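Mods, move this if it's the wrong board.
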Amino acid sequence: MSACRCVAAVLALAFCAVPGHAADRAGELARERLLESLRDSGRVSDALLAAYAESDRVPVIVTLEVPERHALTRRARRDRIRERADDALADCAPADFRLRHRFRHAAGFAGELHLRAVRGLLRNPAVRDIDLDGGGHGALYESMGLTGGYTASTAGFSGAGITVAVLDSGVDTDHPDFAGALVDEHCICPGCCPNGQGVQTGPGAAEDDNGHGSLVAGVVLSRGNVASIGMAPAADLVAVKVLDDGLAFAATSDIVDALDWVIDNYTAAPPTPSTVRVVNMSLATGATFPDTSPNDCGDGGGAVSLLGQAVDELESRGVLVVAAAGNTANKTALPAPACLSNVVSVGATWDQDLGPEPTPFGCSETGTMPDQITCFSNAPAHMNVLAPGARITGPNLEGVLGVSLGTSFASPAVAGCAALLIAQDDMRTPAEVAGLILASPVLVTDPATMFGFPRLDCANALGLLPGDDDSDFDGITVDDGDNCPADFNPAQGDIEDDIVNASAGDGVGDRCDVCVFVIDPDQTDSDQDGLGDACVCTGPDLWPGDVDGNGEVDDQSDIFILGFNFGNSGGVTPAQGDQNCDDVIDGADYTLWADHFGRLSSEADLP
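Not the wrong board. Structure tokens:
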């Protein structure tokens, strides 16, 4: 009789041989003694013991005794993993263990294990330890300009020839922003693959039923047909569905199995056009792990260990893995996979001033601004980098736009930048790519801890200079003197210069100018209503007749602006010309201009 069956028989006697209440008590005592002995073994996680305290049958992940990757060739290690798994699985009756996943590159397997079989399985020399196979959830374009994405694009960087795998809720496969991008689809999601099963491969296998994965993939490589372009708008996509429609994954082993599939199918050597070079995982385990370097995720247990082995195998094959840091405002720990040493962990910042902002993560911002770390972002000292994650606009279901926030959408910005860096030099190792990203000159400090983190600056990582920026795609860079770098203004229209005062405009393009008809290089807008102070009627404080506010009542810009707005309400934009603040631009305003023609504001006003 096998060790596993032996223990099962003993436990059956302990649980069932004594009648009535005495049997119940005997069963409880036997269970308590068994759990205590498992705890004493040091090879069963506390999370698993807690689960067995509630149920006899629990999802587990079993780690096998196999030499580390550096000690064997890849083929020899795969053979050893298979042999050890065969040995361990043969030691338990089917009634005690229902297999769910066998891994090729991580030394372990997963399934549902009955309590009565745990001690027997641990006696097998092939088994290192047993852990709870816990689940998790998805870790939920202003940002393109902020991170240098548009600069990279206009400088010719597109990510062409690089394939990115996104493990998420899938992708809206017929969304215009993914036209021509999708290389392959796969699903590992028990009961929630599009075919209703737990596994599916091929067209339709990763059809998104939540929208999260579509927005994540869009941040990486949107073609820009509906949303903005992504960081790597010509990169290709392998979509792997691992999250259900509620953004949950049932077991960590599903994620390990998905990585196994990527390794087997998309990490060929030498690289081919479809070889995956970057993996993004905007998802997180429920458990978090403090920084206990040099161990990945500290004592994360077997489930995290096997996840780490799969990531290490990807890294050894030239694949950079990027993951969201999570959204629980944790300042001391990270979830898996973000806590793994070969993963680039990404927290979130705001990408613009949105004023006070509520969030769905249990915190609210009293104010927001670019490069402000979000209140919800996990940000322990061992987190790697920040990127904009709030609020992000991108592809959603049904071919339309969606808006969301979270570290989920910061992570793919880094993954997209990694694709650009690999396209720039495909001999770069994952460590070299990560090093370029983490060398960002933009540092953001978390006021809650005073920890400082680099914020993604992809233009800098690519070696582009600030003057190369043409974020508005009008063909004029900052170095070329773009007078409106934030908006498309190819003709460099500046109406004060072109029409009003041919000798001296204010140098601010009309598409950006808060006071179009007034020479106003300072662009002051005290009340932030979009209309510059120079355009707003200020009553007695305004020099009568000086319509453009340049300190002189003349026959150039003043009379032009009066004529342009004559007959309009003072509330129109631009509103200048309403000299007497009666909310109408009429003959009375013209009279004020005429009465003061030729005067300077430094002179005393006439009664």
